Amino acid sequence: MKKPIPILVLTFILLFLMVTAHIKSAGEGITNQNVAVIFIYPGTSEGNVGENFTIEVKVSDVIDLYGYEFHLRWNSTLLDCVEVNEGPFLKSGGSTFFTYKINSTEGCMVVDCTLLGDIQGVNGNGTLTTIKFYIKKTGECLLDLYDTILLNSAEQTIEHSTTDGYFYAVTHNGGNIGGGSSATKKVVK
C-alpha cells in the first residue's frame, strides 16, 4: 500500500516540470518592443544647389546612455559636410567629451561622444549630433548610418536599430531630381 505514494509524487514532479518548461518556452519568442533607435531626422532632406541643409542624428527609447559612436556616409560629389555639433541629449546628463573626424574626399565621418565621470547615463529621446551639409550639385543619395555603438554606464553595449536618411536636390519647380526616396533600417545587437 505504500508504493502508490512515490508514484503519485513522481507524477506531480513530472507534471510540474512539464508546465514550467512550457511556460519558459512560451516567453522565449517575446522581444522587447522598446529597442533604442539611432536615426537621421528628417528622414528625407532636400535643398537647392548652393544652399545648406541640416540633419540631426537622434536617439529614441534609450536607457542609461553613457556614450555613443556612429559613422555616416554620403555622396561626396553632391554634398560637403561644413559643420558638426554636439546635440543637447547626452550633455543633459553632465560634462561630455565630443569629437569627430570628417573625410571629405570619401564622404564619410565618425562621431564619438561620452559622458565624463562616474555617473549614470541618460534616458529617453533626443538629439545626439547636428550636421550641416552644403549642396554642390543636383542628385540624390543615402545618408548612411553604419557601425553605430551605444554604451551604458557599465560600458556595455545597448541593443539598438538604425534608420538611414535620404537627400535629394530640388528642381526650380519644387520637384526632386531622380524621383524617389528611400531609407533603410538596420538592427544592431
Q: Outline the biggest β-sheet.
A: 6 strands, mixed
Count structural domains: 2
Number of strands: 12
> So what's the CATH class of the largest domain?
Mainly Beta
Low-pLDDT residue spans = 19-31, 174-189
Description:
By secondary structure, the protein is mostly beta strands. It folds into 2 domains: 1-30; 36-188, Immunoglobulin-like (Sandwich). 15% of the residues lie in helices and 50% in strands. The protein has helices spanning 4-27, 88-91, and strands at 36-41, 44-47, 52-65, 67-73, 79-86, 96-103, 108-115, 122-135, 140-151, 160-163, 165-169, 185-188. The strands form 2 sheets. The protein has a 6-stranded mixed β-sheet. The longest helix has 24 residues, at 4-27. The chain is globular, with a radius of gyration of 25 Å.
